[in-house]
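Notes continue from the previous slide.

Worked example: a multi-chain complex. Inputs as given:
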Amino acid sequence: MSTSTEPWQTAEIPGPKKALVITKPEVVSALIRRAKRPILVVGHQAAEIQLRNGKLIDYMIRLAENLKIPIVATAHMQREFLKRGFHVDSWMPAVDIGNRLKDPEWQGLDGLGPQDLALFSGIPYYVEWLILSGLKHFSTGLKTISLEMHYQPHASWSFPNLPLDEWEKNLEGIIGGK
Amino acid sequence: MPEKELRMKIGELKSDIGTIKDLELSIGKIIEETWAEEMGPTPFPSITDLREWDLRLLQRYAPFYMPFCDVCCLCTYGKCDLTGDKKGACGLNMASQQSRIVLIACCMGAAAHITHARHLVDDLIERFGRDYPMDVGGLSVEVEAPIIRLVCGRRPRRLGDLEDILDYTERQLTQLLSATNTGQEESNLDFESKVFHAGMIDHVGLEVADMAQIAAYGFPKADPDAPLAEIGFGVVDAAKPVILVVGHNVPPAAEIVDYLTDKGLHGEVEVTGLCCSAHDVARYNPKAKMVGPMSWQLRFIRSGVPDVVVIDEQCIRADTLAEAQKIMAPVIATNEQNCAGLPNRTKDPPTEIVKDLLDGKIPGALILDPAKVGQVSVETAVALAPKRRKFKDVPNVEDIIKGGKRCTRCKECVRTCPNSLPVMEALLEARGGDLDKLSSLYEECIGCARCESACPLDFPLHSFIVKAAEKKMKEEKFKIRVGRGAIQDLEIREVGSPIVLGDIPGVIALVGCPNYAKGAKEVAEIAMEFARRRYIVVTSGCAAMSAAMFKNEEGKSLYEIYPGVFDAGGILNVGSCVSNAHIAGAVIKIASIFAKRKLRGNYEEIADYVLNRIGAVGVAWGAMAPKAASIGSGFWRLGVPVIVGPHGFKYRRMLLGRKDRIEDWNVYDARSGEKVYVGPTPEHLFYSAETKDEAMVMMAKLCMRPNDTTKGRSIKLTHYIDLSRRLFGVMPDDVHLFVRTIADIPITVKDEVIRLLEEKGWKENVIPDPTLLPTMIRRRRE
């Protein structure tokens, strides 16, 4: 696994506090297991990124189903999920879910309490970079994981910059709950 | 004009008591009142006069900060790490630092527009005199300066009247900027209030600038049938000498046109423009050719077509001189804002300057006299064109193939590209001579050339893309209706009622820069979608050009298809960046002309009216510049929500409503003083969308207002539901928040919506006379 932990877009230099690197999928699996109220935020690029066994969205559906994590679709992604016969738990713009997650009084998607872990996938690099920055600085009690192929320094945990096949292997590992 | 400065100068006065020589008296201002409308509560508002209104807005639309940088490096205490709840050495926290940066950006933007306005007013006064009348639309436009009337409580009648207005904006701007110094403002919400103030004075500056140039240069005056001009790379006749003007300040370009006319050279020299100078030179003379938005700068200069490059101010690439030198075209800088390191030749005779440019003694010249710019540019272009023979800086196909073979696959080009375009993959594919993939990047390339700066082998990657797409580029031939200027009072009278009551579902203003994530075509697609749905679509600036640069199946650009009227189904280009004043002006005029609300110095009431009644949404799909931020902030204070494209996230702060918080959406019913829930209308004040489809659904949603009649709300819901179903594949899950009575429900989806209302436990509500201002309540509760 490459250990490159530079921001993927070269000028997106953050600050002193940077994401811990996910060195193996078991780290994510453990974090998910430990979380009481995780959610998975899936952006529009999940319907564009082609992996060996389908598009990224297909992996996210399997991940949500296997690990029982509710999905928030952003942008126009409801359409893409419906095409696959999958009903997401919620839809909202990426900026709106970011805004809610940073609010300690928000009672989550189901109204039963704040989310304590948010995983992100399929959101344009710089958009996710900024949303994660907002959450790093202003959320309380929330941990974030970037499931993207490229290092997201503002997440709590992020993959390093990975080749496609290694990234896919990691995703499969998380989906399998290893 | 209510105030006048009295100056008296006596050369020599002999009297019994002696002789007085060269006496000059200045007696401040004399009030000259000819305007019957009573002055409102806040003429020439100070930074704090509208603070309460701002805080009302900010309570509902709270800032969501997404810091672009975790540290502050603005003073020598720093760098200070502001991560999380840390504070800097000065005591400032991250929220305040972010709002401070937003304020700095908005001050930059407002300063650019206000300085531009000052340049125009000074130039035009020198040329036409202070008493030149401010006619921006004859009898069609009696409310000639809605923003100035609203903010300043003045009616500018002459060019000279604009000077006081600019004095005010410059004073405010200085005070706002001073608040960003270390040790000044500490509250993020007060910074945000100042951001709104910067936006408001920015709008004043925009209006001053466009009024001055419309009146003095005879631009189209509120003309729905403003002429069609040509736009696109392919419309330029490269066989002729070509002058390129870049920027925003039109006097030098106008002088070029005048000089050509005076010398009988019109038609023999091509006058071309990029960015807002293109808009305004075409408003001055529609025979001028508009090359395209600011993102076309590099590709056009490198093509070698321009023989002389004339730059003025704003949105000019900072490497223009270096790029022009590569094609052996001199640069003439015409503005104090951008001297480009060139020698100041303002006082030299034009013939000497031309000679030095032709001899190559100087790469260009700074000439701060527009008339002289006209002469020097034309004479240089005419003499130089046969020598340059369109010397260009464009690689040939062999260079690209060689580049592909030498590429080390470092991916720096991809990692630096704002849109993460697969430049490296495309270049590698070109190794065998297949340029299709490189060519396919053309539409989504924003022309920044960061890929070139990043490439360790110094490949001219942007030029590779442009060369690969050469055929497409040369086929860029479109029509654009030149900026029409203001909206007529008559048009406002006709659409005021249907807009306020909701029969016209909304006004969509497509404005701003060309920093698009997925290419300019999306702007045209948005414009056509909403025009077909009978919204009013207004365009300006680079977005107006982007909208023009696509054709339908019959080969027509959208300005040829849709009428230029401010009415349902119209697509109207108001003009350049400064013409955005007419969009704000139109919503203000609806309150004034249709609703007969008092305008003069009455900002808060009018903004409250706009927020609650006028379904207008600004869309800056490619917003890039601080100028776009300041224009946006002027709309926020006025109560008009703004949507930006994905790159707009980088403005690092959104103003977002929370539809899940019921208590945020109560307004007063002005009839009774009762608080009434009106739903999230409009849900957000500043919002960045991830994709065009997301934005289009949100545009329809943000057009809903508390005051909509049941018929109007039903029409707006029809579009919201229809767009959501088409683009998201679902009925929106928040429809119940926008249904006040059963009559609001569109008939075509009535059963489905009623089922949804039942599931959500919906209750019928009243439609109030909505206001956020306790002062607007006509009968207080006992």
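Summary box: The mean pLDDT of chain A is 95. Chain A is about 35% helix and 15% strand.
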